[in-house]
UniProtKB/TrEMBL annotation:
GO BP terms, alphabetized: proteolysis
Short name of one Pfam family: Peptidase_M17
PROSITE patterns, per the entry: CYTOSOL_AP
Entry superkingdom: Bacteria
Record-stated family: Belongs to the peptidase M17 family.
Protein name: Leucyl aminopeptidase
Keyword Protease: yes
Organism, scientific name: Novosphingobium chloroacetimidivorans
Domain (Cytosol aminopeptidase): residue spans on this chain: 308-315
A molecular function GO annotation: metalloaminopeptidase activity
Top class in the EC scheme: hydrolase
Length: 462
């Protein structure tokens, strides 16, 4: 991504172009306060103070910017993000007030994924100054975490397999002094049979594994973060069509979210005992691939009939959630690109949220609204458990009805989370099909900052 450090800086009176924020209610007065050449420039550019619109005005020997926002009294994370791309490279400051949450969008709006580009962009940075220097570290930390999700998801599967997810976890462990444990091979088959079964058909270089990281004071509340790490999903023997495989490099988006959230937790020294778990596999096709109709044993001892090999993410999460629950955490959060049904229900921008406890759902929903990272709660409806019945095993991994696919997938996971644990499940898309200000097309973090805000509020850094 673009080097983020210079993009927002403390305002020490350095030369900068002024940005005047205007909403529709204040436009008339704003125009009255302008000089005649400025009003003429705004009229020529048909500036109406609409959100994300901007216009250039003469200003003495230089120039300034008029920028439309929805409300000058309440800035959003994204209200300046389009400016961060539209304006020339240089240094800017608001003519009045402080950017607040808009610092984030200013940075994320300048993100570029150029790993495979022969001639990367040579554009210089757009720097935004703020008179609130204490706000800069938090904005940069969240921008860095967002960029981590984007980088991991945007990287093709050949270069982002289970080994590369392990490398990323190892980098975090070294950076923050955490303990890393990786289970693979015969030990994986014995201890986490569903993770092994899903990943066993992959090439040796993409062999399956369970990645675990632990960090923090053991006396602090234990929080488990789990991320689905299917680095590529062919569908297995229930093979996807070509169109369905095209974006399957992003099927490890849950793992990317979990790693990024762990980075935020450790970087901000949140007073928790963190347990990060990433089951990392490639759902490939070979002679030893698991089959429709097979019955798998799980770490929890629950037998699972395979109704569809393309419903593999819930299998690996089942073993990982079982492991997370063994240490009796106070809270478990998992992220997964789990179902197309969630996208049909709530579209690409809203992660589907499932929780056991109403208070946890409220906390996550309110946190998401507060930081412009909304999610939408869907039901863990007990009446749909019958859709997962099997004639020969304890449960089937694929719903039989064709209805409520996101809920039945969440109910499958619920079987592997010990009873009584506070648990939240994000069924996230991890992808932007079209660019929005501050949010380029491609891999993206959806639900990450909502979860982070909730953890801050619950554990003392809110």
């Amino acid at each position: 991504m673009t080097d983020k450090d210079p993009l927002i800086q403390p305002d020490r009176g350095q030369p900068a172009v002024a940005i005047h924020l205007v909403d529709k209610d204040g436009l008339e007065q704003f125009l009255k306060d302008r000089l005649v050449p400025q009003r003429a420039a705004l009229e020529a550019q048909k500036f109406k103070a609409e959100g994300f619109a901007h216009a250039i005005m003469p200003d003495g020997d230089g120039w300034s910017v008029a920028a439309g926002v929805a409300e000058t009294a309440r800035l959003s994370s994204w209200c300046l993000a389009k400016l961060a791309l539209a304006l020339p490279a240089g240094t800017y400051r608001l003519a009045s007030g402080v950017p607040g949450p808009a610092l984030l969008g200013w940075v994320t709006g300048q993100y570029k994924f150029e790993r495979y580009v022969s001639e990367p962009s040579s554009e210089g940075p757009r720097v935004l100054l703020t008179s609130e220097p204490k706000a800069i570290p938090a904005a940069l930390a969240q921008a860095e975490a967002t960029a981590l999700v984007r980088d991991l998801v945007n990287t093709p599967a050949e270069d982002m397999g289970p080994a590369q997810l392990e490398e990323q976890a190892e980098l975090l462990a070294k950076r923050f002094g955490a303990q890393l444990r990786v289970t693979r091979g015969d030990a994986l088959e014995q201890e986490y049979p569903m993770i092994h079964a899903v990943g066993r058909a992959a090439a040796r270089s993409h062999a399956p594994r369970l990645i675990e990281l632990e960090w923090g004071n053991p006396e602090h509340p234990r929080v488990a973060i789990v991320g689905k790490g299917v680095c590529f999903d062919s569908g297995g023997l229930d093979i996807k069509p070509p169109s369905g495989m095209l974006l399957m490099k992003k099927d490890m988006g849950g793992a990317a979210h979990a790693l990024a959230l762990a980075q935020l937790i450790m970087g901000e020294n949140l007073p928790v005992r963190l347990h990060l778990l990433v089951p990392a596999v490639e759902n490939a096709i070979a002679g030893n691939a698991f089959r429709p109709g097979d019955v798998l044993r799980s770490r929890a001892g629950i037998s699972v009939e395979i109704g569809n090999t393309d419903a593999e993410g819930r299998l690996i999460l089942g073993d990982a959630l079982t492991r997370a629950g063994e240490d009796e955490p106070k809270l478990v959060i998992d992220f997964a690109t789990l179902t197309g049904a969630a996208r049909v229900a709530v579209g690409p921008d809203l992660p589907a949220l499932f929780t056991r406890r109403d208070e946890t759902a409220r906390a996550l929903l309110e946190a998401g609204e507060a930081v412009d990272d909304p999610c939408w709660r869907l039901p863990l409806f007990d009446g749909y458990r019958e859709f997962l019945k099997s004639d020969i095993a304890d449960i089937n991994n694929a719903g039989s009805s064709g209805f409520a696919g996101a809920s039945t997938a969440a109910l499958f996971l619920d079987r592997f989370v010990p009873k009584g644990l506070d648990w939240a499940h994000f069924d996230t898309f991890a992808w932007r099909p079209a660019a929005k200000p501050g949010r380029p097309k491609g891999g993206d973090a959806l639900g990450l900052r909502a979860a982070w805000r909730m953890l801050q509020e619950r554990y003392g850094l809110g």
